[in-house]
């Protein structure tokens, strides 16, 4: 990936690192910072590069110095006020114009980092902004270049957009979408209709209050009465000046959610809403003036994939968004754990809770996951950039099609992996901070609730995993027939060795033998092949017993295809991180800690599959399982003194993290006390109190 640039920059000197990354205030965390095996500034520059750090600094300091983004300790905003503030903040983001088109073209990772920086502050304005200029505008941009005028208005914020696929009664099942777009030859228009309230567009971000335009997915009907399948259309839903609904549109807000309440999610119904013929986003197909359907895709399936292709970037970014939530939660929990003293070997001496084996085992594997998933999401984003360039230049090569399929299969599993990891970590971090973790000002509840929908939107995690297992099962014929095969990104190439891999066994004979990520990686390759074989056999058995294709597939999910998809993505994520951390050009001072993170993530993830590893005979005997467990504990212990510095590398400034117990000074109690007393109602007498006489 960007490692060549970063390797060059990593040779920079201490003074340039100091200019980019100021020292933290002195305080109780110094004790751990001094014990770290590496320089956190060197690591930050190595991972991101100076250019990205400068961008992050620019964004963070703009938000910190802007009264619109000021925090109000102890104030409970009403939902309406929060929505208003979110919109005003979103508008400010436009005014800042943090990145030029040229900068994005030169380094697309900058837009990726911009999403993360703003989201670290609050996901509501971040999603509002990117649903408008990323998802809404991005879908239009990838379809055609005939919407330049409209896109100009998007980027000037003269109109406001949303992406309307889901309906009240169908979400993940996109084939079940029932909104219709019927072509009227006589007026050269499409007529958009909602057949009944169950087909109302629902859940749509920005639609509740602000959106004036929507990308609406609908079943396209040609004048011959034929349904041509799912297509997308630009539909104006509100008047630009008054924000009143356009004729034939009923639009509203769906109400309070568990999290992300600054964002207005809405519903809409359409009654004979006419839009010009040009408003079809002709990615999958188009209609001639005479009303004939035309598509450059011969296959209905290919057309369907093309019409949903724009979802992949969202899933990749959700992988990154979730990894960001992981970083936020860990920044708070690890800084807390390093400064919170409880119990100790003697009555006089209390020790930081980070010194407890349990606390290390609960938090440090997630710290490793944050590094691994962060790297993976960036590398997958870069793969997508290559794919997107092909889309924009209308490439129709086999490689382009294969790349689209492979990226789809990867992000359909990396979104579940990352969002579930962040979900579990947020809860673990909340509990790891004891009672203080439950105090809203410390932000762990907000992180947990705002992360939660990452498991659901852009496709429910459990259903998406089926896309990945379908992709893997699709290679079985080549494997059986021993036909050579490969994929553009090479993620399935190891399956060519399937028969050979299935014959392998776990060979480590000591804990020390397990301390490198090559050990879990080899085990994962076996696990993927084994689960592939078992899933294939199970599917055959189901079919032989007379089950329909639908039933047979359904009966192969739990313990088979679902586990296969999870094992495959964990293997892929680990493979990329292993290769990255084992590059001999990595600065020598960083090699050990990065390799430890790689090994810990690999072993910890693998340990959840121990039952299957024993079941399939890859490992046997009591010792093998013990080696893995002890290696995990040993790696946690080795990483314990690096944990604060590892968090310093990715934690945003205090203002952005917005958690007294997570502040960089580590003055845990002073920071909490000060914030509590700043609460404008902390010392108020209740106005409602009446005691019984
Ligand atoms: C995937 C489905 C579940 C499939 O359902 P089916 O079972 O009905 O179909 P099949 O399996 O038969 O599929 C047929 C065929 O198509 C292929 N396919 C499907 N999808 C794709 C795809 N995306 N790419 C390529 N190929 C695809 C599939 O593999 C099959 O091919 P084969 O037979 O050859 O295997 C599907 O129905 C589905 O996608 N369901 C989920 C619906 C969904 O995702 N809805 C989303 C609604 S919008 C939403 O939720 C938004 C929420 C908010 C999001 C916040 C985003 C945060 C990030 C910020 C974004 C910033 C962006 C800025 C970037 C920028 O500036 O650019
Ligand atoms: C905060 C938020 C924001 C959103 N923003 C948008 C937006 O901007 N635009 C938009 O169009 N949509 C949006 N959505 C909708 C979102 O994309 C859908 O909720 C999502 O795709 C899941 O679909 P669903 O709700 O219909 O769940 P369903 O698909 O109905 O799933 C319900 C349950 O059934 C299970 N299930 C379903 N099918 C199967 C199967 N085949 N096998 C096994 N289990 C199955 C699922 O695992 C799940 O547990 C948003 C949702 C949320 C929560």
Automatic annotation (TrEMBL):
Annotated GO biological process: fatty acid beta-oxidation using acyl-CoA oxidase; lipid homeostasis
Recorded metabolic or biological pathway in which this protein acts: Lipid metabolism; peroxisomal fatty acid beta-oxidation
Secretion signal span: none
Active site: 458 (proton acceptor)
Acyl-CoA oxidase C-alpha1 domain segment(s): 309-473
Domain spans labelled Acyl-CoA oxidase C-terminal: 518-688
Catalytic activity: tetracosanoyl-CoA + O2 = (2E)-tetracosenoyl-CoA + H2O2; hexadecanedioyl-CoA + O2 = (2E)-hexadecenedioyl-CoA + H2O2; (2S)-pristanoyl-CoA + O2 = (2E)-pristenoyl-CoA + H2O2; hexadecanoyl-CoA + O2 = (2E)-hexadecenoyl-CoA + H2O2
GO cellular component terms listed in the entry, alphabetical order: peroxisome
Presence of the UniProt keyword Electron transport in the record: no
Source organism of this protein record: Anas platyrhynchos platyrhynchos (Northern mallard)
InterPro entries referenced in this protein's UniProt entry, alphabetically: ACO (IPR034171), ACOX_C_alpha1 (IPR055060), Acyl-CoA_Oxase/DH_mid-dom (IPR006091), Acyl-CoA_Oxase/DH_mid-dom_sf (IPR046373), Acyl-CoA_oxidase (IPR012258), Acyl-CoA_oxidase_C (IPR002655), AcylCo_DH-like_C (IPR036250), AcylCoA_DH/oxidase_NM_dom_sf (IPR009100)
Required cofactor(s): FAD
Protein name: Acyl-coenzyme A oxidase
Domain Acyl-CoA oxidase/dehydrogenase middle, chain residue ranges per copy: 162-273
Gene: ACOX3
Residues that hold FAD according to the record: 166, 205
Compartments it resides in: Peroxisome
Primary site of residence: other
Keyword vocabulary terms for this entry: FAD, Fatty acid metabolism, Flavoprotein, Lipid metabolism, Oxidoreductase, Peroxisome
């Amino acid at each position: 990936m960007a490692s060549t640039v970063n390797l060059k920059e990593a040779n920079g000197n201490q003074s340039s690192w100091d200019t980019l990354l100021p020292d933290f205030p002195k305080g109780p965390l110094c004790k751990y910072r001094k014990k770290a095996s590496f320089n956190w500034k060197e690591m930050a520059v190595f991972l991101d590069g100076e250019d990205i750090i400068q961008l992050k600094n620019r964004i963070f300091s703009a938000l910190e110095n802007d009264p619109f983004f000021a925090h109000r300790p102890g104030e409970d905003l009403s939902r309406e006020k929060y929505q208003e503030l979110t919109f005003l903040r979103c508008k400010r983001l436009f005014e800042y114009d943090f990145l030029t088109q040229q900068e994005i073209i030169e380094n697309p990772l900058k837009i990726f980092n911009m999403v993360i920086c703003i989201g670290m502050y609050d996901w509501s304005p971040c999603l509002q902004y990117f649903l408008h200029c990323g998802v809404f505008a991005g879908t239009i941009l990838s379809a055609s270049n005939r919407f330049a005028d409209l896109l100009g208005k998007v980027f000037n914020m003269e109109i406001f957009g949303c992406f309307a696929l889901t309906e009240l009664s169908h979400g993940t099942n996109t084939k079940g979408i029932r909104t219709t777009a019927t072509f009227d030859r006589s007026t050269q228009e499409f007529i958009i209709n909602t057949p009944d309230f169950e087909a109302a567009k629902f859940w749509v971000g920005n639609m509740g209050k602000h959106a004036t335009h929507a990308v609406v997915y609908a079943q396209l009907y040609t004048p011959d009465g034929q349904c041509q399948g799912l297509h997308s259309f630009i539909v104006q839903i509100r008047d630009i000046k008054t924000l009143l609904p356009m004729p034939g549109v009923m639009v509203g807000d769906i109400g309070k959610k568990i999290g992300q309440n600054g964002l207005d999610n809405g519903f809409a119904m359409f009654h004979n809403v006419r839009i010009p013929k040009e408003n079809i986003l002709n990615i999958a197909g188009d209609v001639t003036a005479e009303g004939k359907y035309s598509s450059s895709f011969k296959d209905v399936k290919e057309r369907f994939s093309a019409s949903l292709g724009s979802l992949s970037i969202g899933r990749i970014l959700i992988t990154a968004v979730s990894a960001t939530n992981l970083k936020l939660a860990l920044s708070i929990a690890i800084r807390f754990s390093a400064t919170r003293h409880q119990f100790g070997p003697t009555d006089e001496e209390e020790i930081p809770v980070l010194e407890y084996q349990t606390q290390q085992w609960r938090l440090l594997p997630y710290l490793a996951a944050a590094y691994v998933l962060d790297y993976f999401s960036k590398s997958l984003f870069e793969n997508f950039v290559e794919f997107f360039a092909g889309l924009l230049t209308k490439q129709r090569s086999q490689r382009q099609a294969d790349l689209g399929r492979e990226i789809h299969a990867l992000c359909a599993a990396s979104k579940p992996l990352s969002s579930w990891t962040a979900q579990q970590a947020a809860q673990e971090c909340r509990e790891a901070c004891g009672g203080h973790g439950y105090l809203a000002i410390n932000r762990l509840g907000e992180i947990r609730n705002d992360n939660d929908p990452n498991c659901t939107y852009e496709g429910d995690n459990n259903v998406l995993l089926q896309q990945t297992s379908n992709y893997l099962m699709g290679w079985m014929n080549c494997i059986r027939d021993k036909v050579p095969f490969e994929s553009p990104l090479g993620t399935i190439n190891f399956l060519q060795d399937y028969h050979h891999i299935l014959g392998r066994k776990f060979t480590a004979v000591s804990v020390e033998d397990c301390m490198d990520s090559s050990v879990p990686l080899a085990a994962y390759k076996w696990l993927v092949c084994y689960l592939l074989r078992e899933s294939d056999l199970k599917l055959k058995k189901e079919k032989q017993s007379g089950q329909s294709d639908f039933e047979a597939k359904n009966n192969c999910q739990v313990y088979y295809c679902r586990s296969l998809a999870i094992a495959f993505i964990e293997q892929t994520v680990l493979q990329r991180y292993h290769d990255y951390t084992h590059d001999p050009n990595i600065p020598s001072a960083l090699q050990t800690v990065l390799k430890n993170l790689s090994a810990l993530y690999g072993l910890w993830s693998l340990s959840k599959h121990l039952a299957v590893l024993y079941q399939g005979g890859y490992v046997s005997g009591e010792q093998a399982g013990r080696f893995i467990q002890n290696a995990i504990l040993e790696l946690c212990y080795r990483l314990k003194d690096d944990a604060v510095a590892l968090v310093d590398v990715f934690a945003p400034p205090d203002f952005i993290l917005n958690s007294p117990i997570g502040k960089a000074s580590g003055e845990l109690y002073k920071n909490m006390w000060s914030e509590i007393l700043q609460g404008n109602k902390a010392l108020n007498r209740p106005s409602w109190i009446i005691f019984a006489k």
